[in-house]
Amino acid sequence: MRRVLTYGTYDLLHYGHIRLLRRAAQLGDYLVVALSTDEFNASKGKSSFYSYGVRKEMLEAVRYVDLVIPEQTWEQKVDDIRKYNIDVVVMGGDWAGDPRFEALKDYCEVVYLDRTEGISTTDVKRELKS
């Protein structure tokens, strides 16, 4: 069984998220999503519209997702790879070259997928404010 792991906040779940999750799931047999907790987001200076619990519930309803785990720190990634026997870590293309993900190549394959053009949570939030 080939296991895939991705990380994200997945706030205001939209079709770009769904497409990324679908493509990530196609790279293996089992998809784990590490979902940023509210506390971790706050440590990064971010806040989500929906709470961690609601975002987790929405992700668990997506057919491509097999398991949702909390992302609480930047440093947990190697432990996640080991604990869940991960073969591939998938991230959006905007993370390509980031040392935090490049370092994971010592433990598993790392794949960067292009984001869906024309949609982002930032854009959705901006539109909702106008």
UniProtKB/TrEMBL annotation:
InterPro entries: Archaeal_FAD_synthase (IPR050385), Cyt_trans-like (IPR004821), G3P_cytidylTrfase (IPR006409), Rossmann-like_a/b/a_fold (IPR014729). GO terms for cellular component: cytoplasm. The keyword Transferase applies. The keyword Zinc-finger does not apply. One of its GO terms (molecular function) is glycerol-3-phosphate cytidylyltransferase activity. Keywords: Nucleotidyltransferase, Transferase. It comes from the Bacteria. GO terms for biological process: teichoic acid biosynthetic process. Residues 5-126 form the Cytidyltransferase-like domain. Pfam families: CTP_transf_like. This is Glycerol-3-phosphate cytidylyltransferase. It comes from Slackia equolifaciens. The lineage of its organism: Bacteria, Bacillati, Actinomycetota, Coriobacteriia, Eggerthellales.
